[in-house]
Amino acid sequence: MQDLIHQSFSVQFEYSVFFTEKMLALDNVVLAETVHSRSRQDRPKMLTVIDAGLISANPDLPSKLEQYAAHHQINLVAPPMIVPGGEAVKNEPALPDNILQAIDRFGICRHSYVLAVGGGAVLDMVGLAAATAHRGVRLIRVPTTVLAQNDAGIGVKNGINAFGKKNFIGTFCPPYAVINDFAFLQTLDMRDWRAGVAEAVKIALIRDAEFFHFLEDSAHALAARDHGAMKMVVRRCAELHLRHIRTAGDPFELGSARPLDFGHWAAHRLEILTSYELKHGEAVAIGIALDSIYSHLIGCLDAKDLRKILAVLNAIGFRLYVPEIEDPSLFEGLAQFREHLGGVLTVTLLDSIGRGFEVHEIDQALYARTIKYLKDYALTGMVSPPRLSMETAGVAHAHRA
Amino acid sequence: MQDLIHQSFSVQFEYSVFFTEKMLALDNVVLAETVHSRSRQDRPKMLTVIDAGLISANPDLPSKLEQYAAHHQINLVAPPMIVPGGEAVKNEPALPDNILQAIDRFGICRHSYVLAVGGGAVLDMVGLAAATAHRGVRLIRVPTTVLAQNDAGIGVKNGINAFGKKNFIGTFCPPYAVINDFAFLQTLDMRDWRAGVAEAVKIALIRDAEFFHFLEDSAHALAARDHGAMKMVVRRCAELHLRHIRTAGDPFELGSARPLDFGHWAAHRLEILTSYELKHGEAVAIGIALDSIYSHLIGCLDAKDLRKILAVLNAIGFRLYVPEIEDPSLFEGLAQFREHLGGVLTVTLLDSIGRGFEVHEIDQALYARTIKYLKDYALTGMVSPPRLSMETAGVAHAHRA
Fold first, then answer.
1. Of the partner residues B10, B338, B340, the one whose CB lies closest to the CB of residue A13
2. Most buried in the list A50, A395, B123, B252, measured by CB within 10 Å?
3. How far does the CA of residue B21 sit from the closest CA of chain A (Å)?
4. Structure confidence at residue B340 (pLDDT)
């Protein structure tokens, strides 16, 4: 008989995601209350890291932060560290090392704070350093892009790229708190403004038909930079992502399923194939288009829904064709996806708008048709895509069983 | 009114700790069943990392592992990686990088295995790599020292040293499984055999008077390398540690309390002051002696219990005096301890054998007397330590209030 002790326990994680405007206005108490509420220090220590991309649009950010900290009894241990923004920040191992070094040098402990202000890539990189210093110091994330506010910046992951693979090194580590300041969105350039909406389309497609219809109605307003519309999109998308993490039963992804990664296997690969010229959200928009077309070709998603999906992506302003979708090595994205998730490939496809389902293989021949379909659609600018022949639909339908 | 979403969820962690002998005997199915039970691969992939210290005593370990893997349909993706044993392995950042590289190169995914075989330091270092690759691949730990089998190797932490600080970089990440193979203990040198018993004394003192009495009765047998006695010590100590993690309510140490670190603040510092010449368990034995004497000096632990504690440590064979205990920088260990835990210093002391309590400051003048006391005791070899004058006890008692 085997002698063993079965160890079993659960760990409770809690954090708040705040939605506000102008968090550094002296009368905005969100950050101050977050820092002071569970601190035993009179002037809690805080190390700040800011995305360089943000500084150019908000050059007075460091001085505003200093004023705010002085006013609210927060001990800024050093001037803000400025790090490059965008995916590049995740490709430079010296950057998390610098942050670890600063955490050491300035005595940031498990009950002190690291404040990370910037896009998703900066939050991911700083998050890894914060999660591994002393096995975790308190990280307050201030996501400043649409993508970071509605998805990457509010979740439980961090990471950097390595060996040519996205997020190869990282941990699951919930933040201490997240502050979504809508005012930052107004200084985004058009590409960053738009890119994050792809994640809203994604989660609407797999979870919430009503939200998809809202996106349909708002697509032109979003393209015209309507602040109110964007706030509603971010708020709802964040809510759906947070609910998924909270209720889907596998926040740390111990299983193989990753429903929120609809459209992502191709997207991750396209980011690499374009040397990250394509932003994550832009790549996700293409991934959504591809997997939606494929869902239609295998006989699931109907043509009307497919047309709506492509039309929304179009109206928001996404470019749905890049030459890299025709690169045969696109399919390496499937292998990398499987490896990252572990063992069994699990890809989410669409039954209808608002309802996803999972498959464990992708027919590459049919996917080649999918790619051709998207190319034709994107380049001819046709409003409605060509319908499938019955024959193809029949062949494809068999794949799902 | 603030707009916020409060996120709250719990994550369930499970793993088994097996106690066995000769795990690589072909008819021992513990490892094979662990690898196959929740795998979808016919021949699950496994990357192995072995402590060099173990190979010298068990030169046939790699070939035995190969035979075992072949017999039990385990795909060893590469010959075992051999890494230096002991604390040095945690001071070399290239080592976890090498393991990450191998995890990438050999396609170890979240449902494949890393098998780490060795002392606590090797398990800590390999654990960090395994926990951060793909945000966590399955780690099977095979602790091969007493210390690793009864404490470090069965818990939820990993880490490496940085900036001259122990475990500065690490994560909380439970293993996939732990296999304690008692046969490895027989090849330990005397220092390693003995060192790990310090953690058993520690947990007995703060949690389990009956176990302490067992250790008193077994001290000479342990010093004489009695295998049966050691198995019982390891089994009970592991059980107490696992129970603490499971039931004390803070497995990932989000609070400040660390009752299991009785004797450890001085121990961590002594390891550094002796350039890791002192093994962790040897340093812990000294730390236990110091904090027990201090507990007595402040009027808590009675003299009879203190004598018993010092006598047990002596009988097991621990050297309780090293010149470094007189180094004034010993007290930097308190600051580092506070910083690592976060904010408030929390040190466990003893009320009586089997019962710890917490204090939040240490009186350095009184601790200087503690050090002198231990030095006198250790160097004169007196069986019973000198008693305190009433005056000192009176002064000291006030400290606890």
1. B10
2. B123
3. 11
4. 66
